[in-house]
Amino acid sequence: MLIKLQKKTLVKTQLFGYVLTLLIGVFIIVSTIQLFIDAKPILNEKTDVFNTKTAVISKQVSVFKSIDKQKIYFTPKELEELQAQPFIKNISVFNNANFKIKAFSNHSESIPLFQTDLFFESIPDAYLDVKVEDWQWEKSQNFVPIVIPESYLTLYNFGFAESQGLPVLSKNTISQVEFNLKVFGNNNTEIYSSKIVGFSNKINSILVPEAFLSYANTKFGRTETSRISRVLVELDNLSDDNILRYFNDNNYDISKDKLEFSKLSFIFKSALIFISGIALVIIALSIAFILLSFNLVIQKNKEVIVNLYSIGYSYQNIARFYQVIISIITILAVVLGIVFSYYLRSVYVKKFKTVFDFSESKNQIFVIGFILAIILVSIYNIYIVKNIKKTVTKTN
């Protein structure tokens, strides 16, 4: 009898409208969060070991600068002007090695013998996104970690290795290879062991810890001071059009493709945040819609509810029907949103794999949907009981 009476109080179109809006909101918010989780490794790999809002600048080399090499170096005044620009958050200079370096391998079955000249540079460790334990160096240490440009590995695999009949190497493989460094100059010589601990897409340079380069320049260097030919700039707003305009006006070279990717990365993340905001608004509207509909049902059928309470039904019993119905349709909407999100993910993951070297991240769609369903059902159950209790006790 109780259920039959309460069934008549429901408006099916209102329930359908709630399910539809909640489904859309859940689908968008869950898909957006999962897309960010899946795309994050791609963004991190493309922006490599450097922070995403950094770029490397140098002076353009002209015929006159080829004659007078001093003109390729930054003066203290030029560095001050750079730091003063509103779109530049901070600047850091590259330190150059003022000594000679040779890299060579020991005899091994897995690694061919090689010997080559190298150059080193360093930047403050705070700008590198490598594991701290991999990038530490102390004077007592005989191991020197290195970061190389990813393009070097590409040139080796598809150029040198191909022409010499050598095996190609993946990032993981080459990161396991240890070799030796012969550092000499200023009548001093030392041998260090070394290994590649990271790769860079943003800068064509071989980087070592700043602590090592400072020590080595002091011990092996030909000059006491290191001249500054390249500067790392930390940008405040990647979408600022004044960035490229300023660098072009001052004849500074900048890696525009990497800057554009960083800008695209910034836009992509901003778009995801905006879409998530829209999804949250839709979910909030669906919640407001069902709560308003429930209030209208209570007001319209206030007499029936009060009579049920008067003949012995507790407010918990009266509320239970509405709790069950709203919980069921809420879970239904969330489940449908999860199903559609799973389908969308299968589509874009397939596309990612054809374009990028992509490995799937952990699927969090079910977890996000489950948490959302628990929160919504809890809110509704508490609200319904309080509203029914308020209605019957206020009348009495």
UniProtKB/TrEMBL annotation:
Q: What are the protein's UniProt keywords?
A: Membrane, Transmembrane, Transmembrane helix
Q: Which domain of life is it from?
A: Bacteria
TM stretches of this protein? 15-37, 271-298, 319-344, 364-385
Q: Listed GO cellular component terms? A: plasma membrane
**Which protein are we looking at?**
FtsX-like permease family protein
